[in-house]
Write a structure and sequence with these properties.
Blueprint: H1 7-29, E1 34-38, E2 48-52, E3 57-61, E4 69-71, H2 81-113, H3 129-164, E5 169-171, H4 173-199, H5 213-237
Helix pairs in contact: 1-2, 1-4, 2-3, 3-4
């Protein structure tokens, strides 16, 4: 199967990776990682829900969308270990995924627009499409692991808080967005690995580019020499006839 006939897998992987990065960005910015419900038995008062994010905290009355208490400096005083870990893990996961997207884009452009026969004069500037997609797939897999592990830990840490204090804590929508984004990153890495396996023949070296430099270069360079050799052999076989005076 020719690699230039498998554009759908790489394009779908790039779109899936982009959507996953967008999901991670939404999960990082939304103040919906944990809810804390505060109930009152006073009929003249309303229950309060405290929405906790990675960077801000917001307290709202039931039925209201306005924040009664808004703390934009929450990120400096986070007292929950799982959220503190997520403050470092999610941006790192996003940075890794963006690097993978950049490599994937380079590999796609090189596969689509570069000739299959390499230019000898530009040998030092050639882009290895197989290497770009392989490294991008590994980076997407690493980004998935960095994002998924602390996001799942939030669920278990939430149960720990309910046992330690009172059952008023619950995880919010950002947890599901982060886990779904991690699933998208894993799907993207699988697509890139499938593309790599489809484009690389099994006996070829692990890091060899999509095209083989040696056969193309030697095939073009050996023709003049072989033609000259045959000509030399013909010249040697021609007998020399001399006429006696």
């Amino acid at each position: 199967m020719g690699c230039r006939d498998v554009h759908a897998a790489t394009v779908l992987a790039f779109l899936s990776g982009t959507a996953s990065v967008a999901g991670l960005l939404a999960a990082v910015l939304l103040p919906n990682w944990r809810q804390m419900r505060l109930y009152t038995f006073n009929k003249n008062e309303r229950n309060v829900t405290v929405y906790t994010g990675l960077w801000i905290k917001c307290a709202r009355f039931d039925g209201s969308r306005d924040c009664v208490i808004y703390d934009p400096q929450w990120y400096t005083a986070v007292d929950q270990l799982d959220l503190r870990v997520l403050q470092f893990a999610l941006p790192l996961s996003m940075l890794t995924a963006v690097s993978a997207l950049f490599l994937c884009l380079i590999g796609m452009c090189n596969t689509a627009f570069v000739s299959s026969v390499p230019n000898i004069k530009l040998a030092k500037c050639l882009v290895n499409s197989a290497g770009c997609h392989l490294v991008a797939g590994l980076l997407f897999l690493l980004s998935c692991a960095i994002c998924l592990t602390p996001s799942i830990w939030v669920i278990f840490y939430n149960n720990y808080l309910n046992r330690k204090y009172e059952p008023v804590f619950s995880f919010d929508i950002s947890v599901f967005i982060a886990i779904a984004s991690a699933g998208g990153l894993f799907f993207t890495s699988v697509l890139l690995f499938l593309w790599y396996c489809a484009c690389k023949s099994l006996p070829s070296p692990f890091w060899q580019p999509l095209y083989s430099h040696a056969p193309s270069m030697h095939s073009y360079a050996s023709q003049p020499y072989s033609a000259r050799s045959r000509l030399s052999a013909i010249e040697i076989d021609i007998p020399v006839v001399t006429h006696a005076s």
